Amino acid sequence: MKFLRYITWPSKPLRRRAIVAALVLSAAPPFASAQTTAASTFRVFVRGVDAGIEEVTVFDSPEGWTLRGSGKFRAPLNLAMDYWEARYDRAWKPIELTVNLTQNEKRWAVHTTFDGTTASSEISEDGQLQRRSSTVAADTIVLPNLVFGAYEALAARLASQKPGAELQMFIAPRDAVPVTVNTVTDETIQVPGRTIAARRWALRVGGGASKLEMDVWTDGSRLLRLDLPAQMVSVVRDDMASVSARVVTMARPNDEQVSIPANGFSLAATMSRPATANDAVPAPGRKPQPIRLPAIVLVSGSTPTDRDEFVAGIPVFAQLANAIADAGFLVVRYDERGAGQSGGRQESATLQELAADARAVVTYLSKRRDVDPKRIALMGYGEGGWIALLVGAQEQKVAAIGLLASASISGTELVLEQQRLFFERGGTANAPPQEAAIEQQKKILDAVITGKGWENLTIDVRRRVDTPLYRSFLLFNPAETLARVRQPLLVVQPMLDREILPHHGEQLAQLGQSRPRARTTDFIRLENVNHLLVQATTGDIAEYGTLSQRSVSPAVALELTTWLNRTLPAMPPK
Fold this sequence. Notes:
By secondary structure, this protein is α+β, with helices and mostly antiparallel strands. Helix content is about 20%, strand content about 35%. The strands form 5 sheets. Strands 8-7-6-5-4-3-2-1-15 form a 9-stranded antiparallel β-sheet, with no helix packed on it. Strand 13 (about 210-220) and strand 14 (about 220-225) form a beta hairpin. Helix 3 crosses helix 4 (about 385-390), helix 5 packs antiparallel against helix 6 (about 430-450) and helix 5 packs across helix 8 (about 470-475). The chain is globular, with a radius of gyration of 25 Å.
């Protein structure tokens, strides 16, 4: 979902929707020890953009548990959380909830008390009082709307559950919804000097057409992360939000972790090899020499992403690397600058500088004794396709380029196209609020490109979009760069892609085929595959959280490896 960035949306739909956020915390002692206090600061992200922080403290006493916090979130949440507190007994049965916040300039206060299976709430909106009574489970988990620290209680309850278990969460002060544990898997998180043995819980929230999928990572009874793919909202503990933390989603026995020199910093990367990659049998009296393999570099987009391209709960690059390595290729995936375990910062970077990072990976590979320097290819996904084109237009060491779900128009045109599609799917393309949002978006884009008109926009908007990276994104035109690319080109278009519509792939293929003095261009249509390269039914973003398949479609790997074997044979010709 690389292209869904910095788009102006109407604020109303987010106002009272129950939004669940992704939470990452460090390892900590279990709650069961008496008289303990744990304080944390969380950073909130909406569609990958930093939207604010929340501070949370957990008190453990002989009487029970108390969760307490405050925070402030910028657009699109527009929320100031003055104070909230949730109290439970020792068995994690709720006792009382208090919330005071301001959202979109309206003050809200909620006070809920629990008596067995009855939750009695008083709700104050700008001084107007309402009372509401709800029937809940005696051990319901209280999760106030937009209060992210409250999910500590969910993590504590999950610690003793197994697949198939059923819980209940109360989205205070409104609805109680069932929660089912679908699967439980063990995962590893790498941080400097240590690793965390985490447990991942795949949950189903609600039922019927309104059900949502949720992933929760825990360390014992402490929350490490919570992810709701359909909402694209994440919350990360401040110390774990740095470039030092990385979730290991998939690993091969012969994977090699490497550090690649870039422009004043290093890129952290994983190099995957075929399982049968051995040294060549030496002639009598000579030392073994490694077999030189063709190498594939997986290139991500401009939003800070780690090497596995973890999107909507799916490690896209980790799965692609595994499949391509099985086909006989050496595959490199790397953390972008400012993400994962790589150095550098993205604030002052441009697309061209991100291309320089990818070019550094190519240079590094060309000097390795186990890589054939004449058979190095780039595979760019989303905006990564643009970066791959920039590298290919300048670097003769690149022998072939693949574009997966990449756009064919400029960044400015793409932002407006995606905003229009969002409104059309909601059936409100011509409604006054949507028309106003489009005009506001145009003002933002014009200010970013020209540097003029900032006086008509808020300081918060300027802080988020007035960057060299976003300006270079808006100004980039793939058609102009593609005309300078001479290498063999592969364009892969998922036909259920609702982020980059099918006409983009078709147009890129036409541009590739019209290149003067260029090698071949191949175009592959992937039927029933969405933007995540996963088998899907509709392809809509709202479907991401309910996909039955959580892995890259085998058809994607088959088409990529077939083209690679034809373009860069896995074994050098005799």
